[in-house]
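seq:
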Amino acid sequence: MDHKKKESQSATSETFEQKMFRLEANYRSSHLIKISRASLVEMLETSYSNYQKAFHHDDKINALVWDGVIRTLHLVLDMEERHD
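struct:
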């Protein structure tokens, strides 16, 4: 992500080396990441929907994957810092 422009480069247009450089630079730039609560909640809703579809189609592997995504998103939401 270009921190000055706040826009991401297309993931398909960068080489592996460029991606690694970008990720390492982002990692070193701050110990915090910015993710909106709204985007986490939206992903959680999508994950629940995909889990239900997989479960109803007896697709156990994908149901387990989406269950893991749901659990991870809940963990991230639980780590939210409160600034009271």
